[in-house]
Amino acid sequence: MCEKTKKVNRWLGSVFGDQPVPEFEVNTRTVDLLCQLVESSELRCKEVSLLVEDRKQKAAEYHSDGAHLQEILLQGVGLSPGSMSKHTSDLLSVLEGVTMALRVKDTALGSYIPAINKLTNELAEAEKTDRRLERDISALRKKMAATLVLRKTLQEDLQKTIQAQEVEAAKAEERLLNMDFVKNKSRDLSYRNKVAEDQLASRQMDSTVTHQAILELSEKIATLKQELLPLTKKLEPYSDLSPSPSLAQVKIEEAKRELAAVDAALEQKVDIMNSSLPKQKSRVLK
What we know:
This protein has 286 residues and is mainly alpha-helical. It has a domain at 2-84. The chain has six helices and no strands. It has helices at 2-16, 28-77, 86-102, 109-203, 211-235, 245-285. The radius of gyration is 65 Å and the shape is elongated.
C-alpha cells in the first residue's frame, strides 16, 4: 500500500509539475485506480517515445537519401550546389511544386501534357456542373416564389372562408332563434284559436253572423248587383213612361216593406256580431 502510494504521488507530481496536486480521498480503491492509470500512462509514454525515435530515424534516412540523390542529379547534369544561381534554384523549386501538384511521375513534357489536359477536362466538367447547379437554383427560386405566392393566396382564401363561415354561423343562429320564436308564436296562436273556437261552440253562436258568412253575403250582394246591371239598362228606355198611379203606389209600398225588413235583419245581425266579438276578444286576452 505504501509503495503504491509513493508511486502514485511521484506520478502526480510529474504530471502537475509546479501546480499543486488536487486533494483526493486516499483509500485502497482510489490508490488501485490511480496505480492502473499510472501503469497505463507509463506504457503510453514508452510507446510514444519509441514512435518518436522511429520517426527521427526515418527522417535521418530520408535526409541522407535526399542528399545522395541530389549529389547524383547534380553530377549527372554537370552541376554543383555552388554553381546554381538563386533564380535557377527558384525555378527548380517551382518545377518541383508543379510536379507535385500535377502528380506526375517525372518532369518530362509527355507527363505534363496529359496531366494538364486532365485538369482542363476537370475544370470544364466543374464549370458545366456549376452552370447546371445555377440553372437548378434559378428554377428552385422561381418555384419557391410561386409557392410563396400560392401560400399567400391560400392563406387569404382560408381567412375569407373562416370569415364567411362565421357570418353563416351567425345567420344560422339567428334563423334558429327566429324559428324558435315563430314556433312559440304559432303554438300560442293555435292555442288562442282553439280557445276562441271552444268559446264560440259553448255559446252556440249562429254561423250566419261570423265574419266569413258576412264576407260571403257581401260577395253575393255584389254578384246580384252585377246581374241587375243589364236589367237596369234594359229598363232605362221605359223610365219615361207614366205608370198607373195606383199600381205604382202598391209596388212602392211593397218595395218599402221589403227594404225595411232587409235593413232590420241586417242591423240585427250586425248588432249581434258587434256585441259578441268584444267579449270574445276580452276573454282571449285574459
